[in-house]
Design goal:
The chain is an alpha+beta fold. It has 10 helices and 14 strands. The longest helix is centred in the N-terminal third of the chain and has 52 residues.
Length: 449
């Protein structure tokens, strides 16, 4: 038996198998590609979008969101991410609003607020605090005797007056309150430590300018002390001379009369002090009664000359007046109060001018900047003068009482210049003083026409 097979049929079978393999491979490639695109569109692309949105949020674009393309786990992840973005945006906006609110509050505060890190560097300050740091840093504080710190080294550092308090707060980790005297100012400082997880990370200082309060408190204490002194002296004399009369120490009528005269003079002095205190209190409270009418200034000056001529002759002082050729008039002024002003100034002039010197009363036309024409009255003496450092304080109550408790024979109360200033202010005028030790004093008053 002979068996055989055609080679052609074998080749056809082989070709068929190869073609079938090719078809299957092509279909498999198409299915793989389709599945890859399916995975890319359903999984990879949303993840890439999530990644890009996260990068945008990290750069500060908090409004970035991811489109939701399915309802499966990827879509749920996108929805959760968007909710997180909304909540984050709301939180950022709330923090921004709080920051703006805090900035507005700090900016509107009259107190200076300075925040410092643990190294003493200024990290935050409101406008008042920045101004204070610049001003205090510009002062040439000496780190050591003969050594000064360059401005560049202290521009961002805590000012030197605050350093001891800052070290105490950071070291002790507790609030501290103190008062600082810096140049001519007085500052109340409240410094509180700032905490973190590791401990104290710095401090915040609140500074308030209490210079005016300090000055007023000093004036109050000085006022009480001076009034007590001014009343104690005549009261002591009244008590002493009254006891002398009661004990019949004065043997003759002349001696008793002399003691009674001293008691009478001291009672008048106390009366003047009380009257001046009441007048000054009414003036400062705004209850000063003014009677405005037409005033002949030239006639007022001449009357004051006649009033003090006898005293000038008695003390050997030459009293003169200097008036313009044309009459000086004020259409709206209180003549009695202006006479009180000139009386107080002339009393001071005679009290401090020695015999043989001169006192001049001058009146002339002038002007007040920003107000217009005015009449100027000047009282010039050749007395002992006022030191330059004391000139700014001559219009305060009991100015002379701080220097010398004795008022002299004229019995001044120490309130005359304070009353002068209040009366001139009531006329909307100005008062100034020029003086130098040994060269006399000149008081200038300008009353607007």
């Amino acid at each position: 038996m002979v068996l055989y097979q055609s080679l052609r049929s074998l080749e056809d079978t082989q070709f068929y198998v190869m073609r079938l393999f090719a078809y299957v491979s092509f279909i498999g490639f198409l299915m793989t590609t389709f599945f890859a695109f399916f995975l890319f569109s359903r999984i990879t692309r949303p993840l890439n979008q999530l990644n890009k949105a996260a990068e945008l949020i990290a750069r500060g674009e908090y409004g970035s969101r991811v489109p939701i393309m399915s309802s499966d786990e990827i879509g749920e992840l996108a929805r959760t991410f968007n909710r997180m973005g909304d909540q984050l945006l709301e939180t950022i906006q709330a923090l921004h609003n709080e920051k703006e609110h805090l900035t507005s509050v700090l900016g509107s505060m009259t107190d200076a607020v300075i925040t410092l890190d643990v190294g003493g560097n200024v990290i935050l300050a409101n406008p008042q605090g920045e101004r204070l740091v610049r001003e205090w840093s510009a002062i040439q504080w000496s780190a050591l005797p003969g050594e000064s710190v360059p401005p560049a080294a202290r521009s961002l550092k805590i000012p030197e007056p605050l350093q001891p308090l800052f070290e105490t707060v950071v070291t002790g980790a507790q609030e501290n309150v103190a008062k600082l005297h810096v140049q001519n100012g007085v500052w109340s400082v409240v410094m509180t430590p700032l905490y973190s997880w590791e401990g104290v990370r710095g401090a915040v200082a609140v500074l308030r300018d209490v210079t005016e309060e300090h000055r007023l408190d000093k004036l109050r204490k000085d006022f009480v002390a001076n009034v007590s002194h001014e009343l104690r002296t005549p009261l002591s004399m009244l008590q002493g001379y009254s006891e002398a009369l009661l004990d019949d120490i004065a043997a003759t009528p002349e001696e008793r009369k002399e003691l009674a005269q001293v008691i009478y003079d001291e009672s008048l002095r106390m009366g003047r002090l009380v009257r001046d205190l009441l007048d000054l209190a009414r003036m400062e409270a705004g209850h000063l009664e003014m009677n405005f009418r037409h005033v002949d200034v030239s006639g007022l000056v001449k009357r004051m000359h006649r009033k003090f001529a006898a005293l000038a002759k008695e003390q050997g002082v030459q009293l003169s007046t200097l008036l313009p050729d044309t009459p000086l008039e004020l259409p709206h002024a209180d003549e009695d109060r202006l006479e009180q002003v000139l009386t107080n100034l002339l009393d001071n002039a005679f009290r401090h001018t020695p015999g043989g010197a001169s006192i001049r009363i001058r009146a002339e036309r002038s002007s007040i900047p920003g107000t217009g024409p005015a009449v100027m009255l000047e009282v010039e003496d050749e007395g002992q003068g006022i030191p330059a450092e004391d000139v700014p304080y001559v219009f305060e109550r009991f100015y002379k009482a701080d220097k010398a408790r004795t008022r002299g024979t004229s019995g001044g109360t120490g309130l005359g210049l304070a009353i002068v200033k209040n009366i001139v202010d009531a006329h909307q005028g100005t008062v100034s003083v020029r003086s130098a030790p040994g060269h006399g004093t000149t008081f200038s008053i300008r009353i607007p026409v």
